[in-house]
Amino acid sequence: MRTPLRLAAAASALTLITGCGPFGDDNDDGEAAGSAEEVEHADGPLVVEGAFGGDNGFPARVSFEHVERWDDRSVLRFTVEPLGDDAHDEGDRMIKSGTFAHYDSGTWDFALIDTVGSTHYKPLADSDGYNPGSPMPQTWFVGGQFEMEAHFPLVPDDVERLTLHAAGDIPPVSGVPVVDGEPPEDPPTGEEDDAFEMEAGDTLALETRGTDVEGEPEDYVDELHPIVEHPSRTRADGGDEATVGLHADVLFELDESELTDEAADTLTEVAEQTRAEADPSQPPINVVGHTDGQGSDDHNQNLSEERANAVHEFLSEELGDDYEYETEGRAADEPVADESADDEEQREDAQATNRRVEISYTLLPEAEREAGADDGDGGGGPLESVVAEPAPFREELGEPVDSGEAQMLEGSPSEVRLDVYPFYRDGAYLVGVFGLETPEDGSAPLDRLEGTYTGGHLTAFGVRGPDEGEVLRTARVGAVPSGETNGDYLAHRQHSIFMEEGESRVGFAYFPAPPEEVDEVTLDADRFGEFTVPVE
């Protein structure tokens, strides 16, 4: 499998920096402290070639220039050179139809990621659902270039590099420069029909749509939530808030609300961690009980309230009077796993995941948090990790370090080969890049490879953390909507659900970054097996 990536820019030196990791902020001046080794960043354009967007993919060579920071928004500038054998002859020109968007929607299926600030930016949209900036052409001249712009929410002044994710068979485009800019005095005036008049080497800049935005710009911004699993609990942080999900089966007997003797160890560790990092001046500490979908609504509501109250009472005794609490039960109204699987084991695993008590609170500023908390079994607290500079643009994937084969779906006519490439650090995250390839004589349907965390790709994959029993999972984008189980996760988005004979794809997932000294990790790739992967 090959995805050509070409770098065509001068490079400048930046530094790998150590800091608090994906579960906290940088230091007071906005930069993490320390210096390990220099990395080189390109100034652009960053040239990527592959199949973008929709069901069948749109082959193109795209040059990403930079992101301009205007007064009220950010503008991604890029140039599209359409490729492919599916163009048709229009006189002496080869004309290509289609869009490289999700299901031919006519919207740019891009996202910008601040991997240091753990923030995800979606393209702005007007009241009709279209993106301000360049319209998505339906007609392209193969041999010409189309200058485009896509509008995003305004990124902070201290952000100098972003990573771009595009739907399709495209690896992450890291190290996109951010520069200050302003709307051009002479905006482009080209029309889509001008493509029929283009000659080889011509460039067309289409007239942009209006700048109106539906809703507020912050509606298009999401915090990233790194997920760290521990045998007794799961932690997902975002921005200045921490959420610890305690596994109810560790605290209670089935269908009971009295804490077991074994629960004390887990809750004592959680109380120590809460004391070390919860901000008592930003109340409350929320304690919310959840059940699985078995039993009546009234029974589940009572059980969830009683379990939340039991945890609240333990915490308040441990923490004293410095904190305020809000306690409630939500029965089975907010599942985090789908309990409808036909397989009994999968169904029971989902039910166990949904039985939980969640504790959430506002974090103290990083400088005020106590060091050395959670000295029990070492799990459940923030992962000590490196916050590096955003990764530089990567010209190529490198060589696979290992591979495995498996059926993507039961009864699939062919196995799919998974190639595992070296992992690398991008800001507060560890990036796993994978190749998927079918044999020359076999096709295969695709599966999202989603585990407990449904709605995203590769959420069944996990990286073993530095502490025993700890698993690092694909980061979540924003919150899971209330009452739903499907979330959005920081991984590739491929919309075609079938691979032809001998076809190859690129996939990726972003995990919380492990500590700086970690130079290799164990990847649990679900049905494909386990792999030891170096960290670059």
UniProtKB/TrEMBL annotation:
InterPro entries: Bact_OuterMem_StrucFunc, OMP_bac, OmpA-like, OmpA-like_sf. Residues 239-365 form the OmpA-like domain. Keywords: Cell outer membrane, Membrane. Residues 173-194, 271-301, 327-386 are annotated as: Disordered. This is OmpA family protein. Its main location: membrane. It comes from Nocardiopsis coralli. Residues 182-194, 335-347 have a biased composition (Acidic residues). It is found in: Cell outer membrane. The keyword Chloroplast does not apply.
